[in-house]
Amino acid sequence: MNTSEVIHAAVSAEPLNSADAERAAWSPDCGAVVLFSGIVRNHDDGKSVTALAYSSHPTAQSVLDSVANGIAAKYDGIRIWVAHRTGDLEIGDAALVAAVASAHRGTAFAACSELVDTIKANVPIWKEQGFTDGSTEWVGVSDRP
């Protein structure tokens, strides 16, 4: 019987706190918590980024739920906390936070890595970047519904 649990999965405009995610994912039977924080950086592809906004499709929450539950079903004994921001973000803000706890580090690392990669590939969330030259660019739009 798989004992994994999704503690939290959300698409939200609320700021994300990685320490809160780590605390929520951990439990006394977990000897490892692997934390991923995707942070807004000040550059992309050689251009200086000044602004960034995330938009989501109405199905983004249900797709995120499905992804988190799928990872939980694949790895036994893990606890998942994951959230993706929407709206306007500043340089240094967390856009995606994922915490996976497990009894052992190998499982926690593998599950967290697969969780983040699967979210990036499947959850319909797009970002619009603004650059210092005044131009903008949408990232991920052509790959999604």
Structure description:
- By secondary structure, the protein is of the alpha+beta class.
- It is 28% helix and 40% strand.
- The protein has helices spanning 18-25, 60-74, 105-122, and strands at 5-12, 32-39, 43-44, 47-56, 79-85, 87-89, 94-102, 125-131, 136-139.
- The strands form 2 sheets. Strands 3, 4, 6, 8 and 9 form a 5-stranded antiparallel β-sheet that branches.
- Strand 8 and strand 9 (136-139) form a beta hairpin.
- It is elongated.
- The N and C termini lie far apart (35 Å).
List unreliable stretches of 5+ residues.
none
Overall pLDDT: 95
The secondary-structure class comes to: alpha+beta
Helix content: 25-40%
Question: How would the blueprint of this fold be written?
Answer:
Blueprint (H helix, E strand, L loop, with lengths): L4 E8 L5 H8 L6 E8 L3 E2 L2 E10 L3 H15 L4 E7 L1 E3 L4 E9 L2 H18 L2 E7 L4 E4 L6
Key phrases:
five-stranded antiparallel beta sheet, elongated, 3 helices, single chain, 145 residues, alpha+beta, four-stranded mixed beta sheet
Structure in a nutshell:
Helix content is 28%, strand content 40%. The protein has helices spanning 18-25, 60-74, 105-122; strands at residues 5-12, 32-39, 43-44, 47-56, 79-85, 87-89, 94-102, 125-131, 136-139. The mean pLDDT is 95.
